[in-house]
Design brief:
2% helix, 2 domains, Porin, Outer Surface Protein A, domain 3, 348 residues, mainly beta, single chain, 61% strand
Length: 348
């Protein structure tokens, strides 16, 4: 993404991760682009002309370019703006490209795919008169059509503020720790009604380095006497990049959990269903390894829970008939720590 101001000699360009910004000045004007190589390549030329009366030109294929490209005329007015992407061993134009005359008037706007122009282009002469044409093979044929929106040009020219695109990630994770977290009381047939393993899903919106969104999941114990459902919100903060494919993050969660247990006392016949509600805060820090542009593997260290508290509850155990309620004191809560692993999908 780049923010360019027409008619001035400055521009702010954000290069993709793993590339660096190159700025050159020559008799043809100034240019900025992002590159993956250590050497400074020659400034990309304007490119050859289409066989058309509209007189437009195609940006050429290069090598080592990846991301936004911007150039200016010798008088400082904007000349060209677009993006390059790697395709095979070459860097080719990809996406929206726009050109301007030396007097600041718009010249050309259109879209490229893998280095080739596609669809409808708009072309202006130096006096601002516009024509449109569609790409057919290696020629641009004059005819009425709908080119890219003026909003795109207004953003590039600085008439509209450029907005950083937002993205959303969806992740699924599993957590396993050595401690028990849940509810327990004395004289139960099962020695362990608490949960040690958890599975959760999260959807988060990206706001710069901040990621926020809802989370929900289920916790399971070592037996079939109960389960815990939880739902809440999470907020994460992306740390400075360690590597183009590796990112670190710290995050915090606050959920409400519903603990459903099947209780069975040694001294009572029958069983009882007991339900407790409890807050469940958590913090974690971890790393994300990109497996592809849209998929990453996750690994984190996580701590969750609250100090245990006592809750008195009248519990009625039933077999063929229900006995009188038994007053019991249950311990709710506890801490757990462990490792979280999972997968995250990035949606742009």
């Amino acid at each position: 993404m780049a923010l360019v101001w027409s008619g001035c000699a400055t521009a702010q360009t954000i290069c993709p991760t793993g590339t660096k910004l190159i700025t050159t000045t020559a008799s043809a004007g100034r240019a900025q682009w992002c590159t993956t190589t250590n050497s400074v390549a020659n400034q990309p030329a304007t490119g050859r002309s289409f066989a058309t009366s509209l007189g437009m030109a195609r940006p050429p294929a290069m090598s080592g370019l990846e991301g936004p490209f911007t150039s200016w005329h010798p008088n400082g007015s904007l000349h060209a703006h677009g993006s390059y992407t790697s395709y095979g061993s070459r860097s080719v134009p990809e996406g929206l490209w726009a050109f301007w005359h030396h007097n600041g008037q718009r010249s050309v706007i259109g879209v490229y795919h893998r280095g080739l122009p596609v669809g409808c282009f708009a072309v202006w002469d130096e006096h601002g008169a516009r024509q449109t044409g569609t790409v057919q093979g290696d020629e641009l044929h004059v005819e009425p059509c709908t080119p890219p929106s003026d909003d795109d040009l207004l953003t590039i020219e600085g008439a509209r503020p450029s907005v950083r695109p937002t993205s959303v990630d969806i992740s699924v994770q599993s957590f396993l720790g050595p401690n028990e977290l849940g509810a327990s009381t004395a004289d139960q047939v099962s020695d362990n009604l608490a949960s040690t393993a958890a599975f959760s899903g999260t959807v988060r919106k990206h706001l710069g380095r901040l990621r926020v969104g809802p989370t929900a999941g289920i916790r399971l114990g070592d037996n079939s006497f109960g389960k815990t459902l939880h739902a809440g919100g999470t907020a994460g903060w992306r740390l400075p990049s360690l590597h183009p494919r590796v990112a670190a993050e710290i995050s915090a969660e606050l959920s409400v959990q519903r603990i459903d247990l099947t209780a069975q006392r040694r001294s009572e016949r029958g069983i009882a269903t007991v339900v407790f509600w409890s807050p469940l805060p958590a913090v974690q820090t971890g790393v994300e390894l990109a497996l592809s542009p849209s998929l990453a593997a996750l690994a984190s260290v996580r701590v969750e829970g609250l100090p245990s508290r006592d809750v008195d509850r009248d519990v009625r155990y039933c077999d063929l008939f229900c006995a009188d309620p038994v007053r019991e004191t249950w311990q709710i809560g506890g801490f757990n720590y462990g490792i979280t692993v999972g997968l995250r999908m990035l949606l742009r």
